[in-house]
Amino acid sequence: MIPCASPLAQLPPLESEIHAAIQSVLRNGNYILGGQVSAFEAEFSAYLGVTHVIGCGSGTDAIVLALRALDIGPGDEVIVPSHTATATVTAVMLSGATPVYADISADCYTLDIQKVEEACSARTKAVIAVHLYGQATDLDGLLEITRRRRLRLIEDCAQAAGASFREKKLGTIGDIGCFSFFPTKNLGAIGDAGAVVCKDAEIAARIRRLRQYGWDDRRISIETGMNSRLDEMQAAILRVKLPHLDQHNTDRAQQAVGYKTTLADLPIILPAQRAHSSHVYHLFVIRTSAADRDMLIQHLARNGITCGIHYATPVHLMPAFNGKHALPITESIVKEIVSLPMFPGLDKNAQERVISSIRAFYAR
After folding, report:
1. Coil vs helix vs strand at 307
2. Paired residues of 77 in beta bridges
3. CB 152 within 8 A of CB 129
C-alpha cells in the first residue's frame, strides 16, 4: 500500500540520531522546557531569520497564544478561510473571538483579497493567512489591507515550514507566525508540538508567559495563561530533523515535478505556484471533475494507493462552526480536489505506480 503521507518513511536515515537524542533526554531528567527546547528555539530562530521563537504544545495552541498575546478575544472578529484545517478556526473560537469566513481564489486556494476586504467590519482585529498546501497566500494583498486598516496579520504556517515569499521565510512576514510540528508536517515531531514566532520582544515575552499559566519569573500568575509547553523529547527530535528540512522540501519539489511532467496532458488541474513564492509541497493537490473525483480515489485504492481530500468539508459547513456566509469557490473545489501521495521517502517506483494508475483511469 502506498500511503498519502508517511512520517515513518523519514525515520530510517535519521533513526540512530533520533535514538541518541531520545536517550540524551531520558538521561538528563529534565523533561519540560529545558535545554533541548531552548536549543531548538534558537536553531529554528536562526533558520527562519526571526528574533523570537517560542515552543508550545501544538499548532492550534500556537494560534490561540498569538491571538491572546495580541489582545484579540470576545467581541472581536478574525477573518479566516473556511478551506483550511479545522484547527485554524478552532483556535479563533478558543480565544473567544468570532471567525468571519472569506472565500478563496480558484488558483492557489488561499484567501481571495477582494473577499477579505468585503469581510472587514468595525469589529475586525486580525486576518489569519493560511499558507495552504506548502506555499504562501497572497501576502502582498494581505499586507496592504492589514496595514491600511491597522489589523494584525497572523501567519498559519502549519503546512509551509521552509517556504518563502519574496525571499523571506513564511512566518516572519506578518505580526506573528504559527507552526505545527504534527508528525505529517514538513518538519514533524513524533507527537504534538508547535511554535510561535515573532519580531516584537514584548509580544514574545507575553507568549512565553501565556504558554505556562501566565507565570512571571517567580511562578506568580499575573494573567490567566494555559498549559502549552513543548516537551524536551519532541524538541530533541525536531533538532535532529531541522537540518534536513530543506533537503526534505527539495525531495517534495522533485516529486512535484514528476507529477506535473507526466500528468500535464490529462483533464486535471495541477497545482499552481504563486509568483515570488517558493512551494514546499506539504500536499500535492490536483482537481478533477466532481463526477470523476470519487471514482478516481476508488480506482487508486483498488491499486493499493491511498489518496486524501484536504479538505472534504469546509469548516463553515460543520455544525460546530455554523458559518453564515456563502463561499462558492470553497464549496465548489471541495468536490473536485484529491491529494496524491507526497512525502520524503516516496521512492521513484512508488510514484510511477501512482502516475500509471492515474493515467489508466483517464484512459478508460
Report:
1. coil
2. 98, 124
3. no
Cβ atoms of 21 and 237 closer than 8 Å: yes
User: What's the average model confidence in pLDDT over 104-116?
Assistant: 98
Q: Is the peptide bond before 109 cis (omega within 30 degrees of 0)?
A: no
Cell of 153: 496579520
- pLDDT tens, 161-176? 999 999 999 999 999 9
User: How many beta carbons lie within 10 A of that of residue 117, not counting itself?
Assistant: 15
CA distances from 215 to 42, 53, 208, 312 (A): 22, 18, 9, 40
CA 14/CA 5 separation, integer angstroms: 18
**Could you give the CA distance from residue 361 to residue 364 in angstroms, rounded to a whole number?**
6
Task: Kindly report, residue by residue over 318-343, the tens digit of the pLDDT.
Answer: 999 976 778 999 999 999 999 999 99
Quote the crossing angle between the two packed helices 232-241 and 11-28, to the nearest 10°.
140
Can you tell me which residue has the cell 509551509? Answer: 160
Calculated CA dihedral for residues 202, 59, 334, 292, nearest 10 degrees: 140
> Which pTM does this prediction carry?
0.97
Residue 307 φ then ψ, to 5°: -115, 175
* Burial 34-56, CB ≥16 within 10 A → b, else e: bebbeebbebbbebbebebbbbb
The span from the CA of 182 to the CA of 280, in Å, is 16
- Residue at grid coordinates 472581536: 76
Tell me the three cell numbers of residue 115: 473577499
Amino acid at 65: L
Cβ(111)–Cβ(104) below 8 Å: yes
pLDDT at 243: 98
Q: Are 276 and 165 in contact (CB under 8 A)?
A: yes
Measured CA to CA, the distance from residue 342 to residue 253 in angstroms comes to 10
